[in-house]
Task: structure prediction
Amino acid sequence: MRLDKYLADMGVATRSELKKAIRKGAAEVNGAVAKDPGMQVSEADEVTWFGKKVGYASVVYYMLNKPAGVISATEDRHHRTVLDLVFEYEKSCGSISSLKRKDLFPVGRLDIDTEGLLLITNDGALAHQLLSPKHHVDKTYFVRLDKAATEEDVQLFAKGFRVDDELTAMPAKLELLPDQEARITIHEGKFHQIKRMFHAVGKEVLYLKRLSMGPLVLDEALDLGKCRPLTEAEVAALKKQGE
Ligand code: URA
Result:
């Protein structure tokens, strides 16, 4: 592809700004200044922009350990978004690979006060597969409640039940843990689903954290607020799950 398209795809600047800057010598290809915006480059070439490496990746996948207080949206006037955290990570790597890319989005949403695993990508087809009700991708959460859940709750959740006027929950697996804590696996992802399910049985969720989504498991080494690219094996497992 053309050098100006390569750089525009990675969001470093608009195409017209790019042409001017390339002619002035802002870009290098494999260590040599490249002043022709139409120069042919491929993903295998090493391209830099004002001295910073630009990795070309048409699709990218990040695992984020979402902290509370950050919203699962691409932009917001009042709160930091999960994409701000991805951009911070990329800056810290000295890379501008998908920095400022307009096409990244979170796959599904976690409430503002929910922590844990969130997949961020620009792979719309994979996101569609993972979110489609047809595929019933399991999502497991750790939950802390104001009162301990009971064996009756386990049975009720396992059968599925009418939660409120708008939600009938499909069967879910509830595992009781000590200290008013539990693990719950659901196949759907309705608005405030887990909070509503517990509320319906007289318990309030005090803390919620997503541990896994299908085969993708939150990396214990990832601190809150941090993200990392998925490994090839993780991407392959997710794609297989979505088939
Ligand atoms: N269920 C909820 O209630 N909140 C979340 O963030 C995710 C699932």
The longest strand covers residues 205-213. The pocket of uracil is lined by residues 110-111, 114, 192-195, 208 (CB under 6 Å). The chain has a mean pLDDT of 90.
